[in-house]
Design goal:
This protein has 472 residues and is of the alpha/beta class. Helices cover 29% and strands 21% of the residues. The protein folds into three domains: 239 residues, Metallo-beta-lactamase, Chain A, CATH 3.60.15; 112 residues, Oxidized Rhodanese, domain 1 (3-Layer(aba) Sandwich); 95 residues, Rhodanese-like domain (Oxidized Rhodanese, domain 1, 3-Layer(aba) Sandwich), CATH 3.40.250. The strands form five sheets. Strands 1-2-3-4-5-6 form a six-stranded mixed beta sheet, covered by helices on one side. Strands 7-8-9-10-11-12 form a six-stranded mixed beta sheet. A hairpin with a 2-residue loop joins β7 and β8. The longest helix has 15 residues.
Length: 472
């Protein structure tokens, strides 16, 4: 028996393949949507993927169970409470799937979602009584537990799920032997929790010692602590959670449709008809020159999270990328279920060399220059697009806080003739905000180079205090 972890850093997502050499069989747990790595590794090892498990209906990405089923004819397994449109084997406490030296046994562990399961992995050459590992999905993370507050919009309360989570952790997972390896579905950076470790594997014993949510406490205290200070979830989470229940097109079919080069004149017509224009180049290149009307979400960074937050799943998208990066940009949209890409601008920005009338730029300003403007009384509106928690710890004096995930609603009310400087911690989020300002007709926009970090490094004044989104 072998267990291999696949870690997708851009989504902080871990998936797994368990293989058995005796029978040449493999099972995959919580696969990402682009499945080539599982197929390649199975083929290299002489294994056939026959089983695909979803520990729950993931909200932050579109899982690859449909793709694996279509490619390998593997059976799909989900917890007994999971209602789906496609053929599936529902599993409950104690159900087993065995092949050769491998036993996979189900624990129902609701709490993050009602249908959540964990999977005990036994190496039968070592023991049929002591599990080798447990794949905990989003029930138990390294250093954290799954948040119970994501399903309120579809009628499942955080209070009810927190009750389930308390029981799943204390009655099932923490009763496992301390040496049992813990393999979760997410790591640091995921918004499915608030305190995830950078480590991607642990043990039950280590988590009982160091995980704040597993320390001795009563039910009420637990429910209060696991629901407090959770990050605001991107709007696409519910969209993906529902898509993971549905029969749908495969990623291959989506890419075949979306990887189309579109000439400039056609792109302009599409934009006039309401198509979203997404420029994925680095902020410094975008701000130097970009096609008017484009939104900048650089591909290097939390690209999927911010695409899922700032873009609509219902309107078509055209991508502008550096030549050779178009497929990556569209693939990563496909991973979060954004299959509404019509294509990409043929030739990228080079096609605009003789069309200066179509170009816009965004000015950049240094921290020292901004401080100089403030000192002389030339007071642009300084907008900090970090979270309220970040802003409260420290911020530029006289700035206002409008977190990026609320920025679009606020910008619509901002007078277009007002000078605005936007910033975040280091420059990624402010580039998105600056592009949104110019997209909505604001011409007097500047992006603070290096963000709040640059302001601090320059030893300029800093204030702290509670954030309140300003009225306009």
């Amino acid at each position: 028996m072998q267990v291999k972890q696949y870690y997708l850093g851009c989504l902080s997502h871990a998936s797994y393949m368990i293989t058995d050499d005796k029978t040449g069989t493999a099972a995959v747990v919580d696969p990402q949507r682009d499945i080539e790595q599982y197929l390649l590794d199975a083929e290299k090892g002489g294994h056939t993927i026959r089983h695909v498990f979803l520990t729950h209906f993931h909200a932050d990405f579109l899982a690859g169970h449909i793709e694996l089923r279509d490619k390998t004819n593997a059976a799909i397994y989900i917890g007994r409470r999971g209602e789906v449109e496609y053929p599936v084997t529902h599993v409950k406490d104690g159900d087993r799937v065995e092949f050769g030296d491998v036993r996979l046994e189900i624990l129902e562990t609701p709490g993050h979602t009602p249908e959540g399961i964990s999977i005990l992995v036994y190496d039968l050459t070592q023991s049929g009584r002591q599990p080798y590992a447990v794949m905990t999905g989003d029930t138990l993370f390294i250093g954290d537990v799954g948040r119970p507050d994501l399903l309120a919009s579809i009628g499942v309360t955080a209070d009810a799920l927190a009750d389930m989570l308390y029981d799943s952790l204390r009655q099932k997972l923490t009763t496992l032997p301390d040496a049992t390896l813990v393999y979760p579905a997410h790591g640091a950076g995921s918004m499915c929790g608030k305190n995830l470790s950078t480590e991607t594997v642990s043990t039950i014993g280590e988590q009982k010692k160091f995980n704040y949510a597993l320390q001795p406490m009563d039910r009420a205290e637990f429910k209060a602590i696991v629901t407090a200070e959770q990050p605001e979830a991107p709007g696409y989470f519910i969209h993906d959670a529902m898509l993971n229940r549905q029969e749908r097109s495969s990623l291959d079919a989506t890419l075949a449709k979306s990887l189309q080069a579109i000439n400039l004149e056609q792109v302009l017509r599409l934009v006039n008809q309401g198509t979203q224009l997404l420029d994925v180049r680095d902020a410094i290149d975008f701000e130097g020159a970009h096609l008017a009307g484009a939104l900048n979400i650089p591909i290097q960074g939390k690209y999927a999270t911010w695409c899922g937050t700032m873009l609509s799943q219902n309107e078509p998208i055209v991508v502008i990328a550096e030549p050779g990066h178009e497929e990556e940009a569209i693939l990563r949209l496909g991973r979060i279920g954004f299959d509404n890409v019509m294509g990409y601008l043929r030739g990228g920005m080079s096609t605009l060399e003789n069309r200066p009338d179509l170009l816009q730029r965004i000015d950049r300003i240094t921290a020292v220059a901004l401080a100089g403007q403030q000192a002389t009384g030339a007071m642009p509106m300084v907008v900090d697009v970090r979270t309220a928690k970040e802003w409260a710890v420290g911020h530029i004096p006289n700035s206002v806080n409008v977190p990026l995930n609320h920025f679009r609603q606020w910008v619509a009310q901002l007078p277009s003739d007002r000078n605005v400087v936007v910033h975040c911690e280091g420059g990624y989020r402010s580039a998105i905000a600056a592009s949104l300002l110019t997209q909505t007709g604001h011409s007097n926009v500047m992006d603070l180079v290096g963000g709040f970090k640059a302001w601090q490094t320059s030893k300029l004044p800093v204030e702290s205090g509670t954030s309140v989104v300003p009225e306009t």
